[in-house]
Amino acid sequence: MPKGMRHFGWSKTEAIIQVHGIGPFQIIPADTEEHLSGWRNTPQNGWLRDPMTASFFKFKITERVKSKRGEGMIVGGMHSEKSQITQYFVQMDNGDAFCESEKDLTIVPKEKLAGPLNGKWEVRTHGAPWCEDCNLYFQQTNSGLTGVYSLSWYGVAFKSSTFKDNVLEIRLETLIGNFALRGKYNEGTLSGDWSTDTGVSGKWEATKTKETLSGNRGTAFRPQ
To answer: Hey, CA dihedral for 161, 206, 125, 24, is it positive or negative?
Structure first.
């Protein structure tokens, strides 16, 4: 696997990719990727925040969709303009996940949203180098609270979540471990403590943001 060699793989079924190598290893995209999480991954500069990436996608994080593979919540998505690929990462209620092309997904009608948490929140986590900057997406209805914990490259639906008397508690099972977020809501802000099942803990805070141009793919300015 010589340095700089381009690789491409595609599978229509579930697959495991195993890479062998000696020495430093880095994945660099051959072409710019727009991610539904609000990031771009570029060959020249790596990961860059860009809220305009939402304009490339028909669906949003936390929306419920279905395809022949099943039904679940959107936890992420990736778009490549050069390759003309738009795909989503969907997590089912049992925790299993699958990728699906945009054209193969249909929206599932949802209950009316109600509550102060609905939308996207930018999170600052102290003492957790893997997630100093991440996002929380909430979907709050009269039936309860669901949502997605999102990094630039990865998203996972809440394992469980409660919000009562302005006190929030979220439990997550992620690729980097299982952990809990506990916090309190106060006029558009959230703050509290986080902890892992291995005993590591710290503080976090979040502010609500305004999502722009979502659902208008192709109409936004696309940075070069």
So the answer is: positive
- Please report, for the domain that includes residue 202, its CATH number: 2.40.128.120
Quote the CA–CA distance of 63 and 68 in Å, as a whole number.
Answer: 17
Nearest to 72 by CA among 81, 80, 82, 64: 64
Helix (H, G, I), strand (E, B) or coil at 103: helix
Alpha carbons 11 and 14: distance in angstroms, whole number: 7
Q: What does the pLDDT look like over 156-165, one tens digit per residue?
A: 999 999 999 9
- pLDDT tens digits for range 140-192: 998 899 999 998 888 999 999 999 999 999 999 987 789 899 999 998 899 99
Sorted by sequence, the CB contacts under 8 Å of residue 196 that are 6+ apart come out as 177, 178, 179
Instruction: Work out how many domains the chain is built from and give that number.
Output: 2
CA–CA gap between residue 33 and residue 165 (Å, rounded): 41
- Cα–Cα distances (Å) from 115 to 91, 108, 143, 190, in that order, read 23, 21, 11, 14
Domain, as residue range, for 204: 119-208
Residue with tokens 């050069």: 82
Q: Map residue 212 onto helix, strand or coil.
A: coil
Confidence of residue 44 (pLDDT cuts 50, 70, 90): very high
Both tokens of 62, joined, read 């936390």
Report how far residue 87's alpha carbon sits from residue 35's, in angstroms, rounded to the nearest whole number: 10
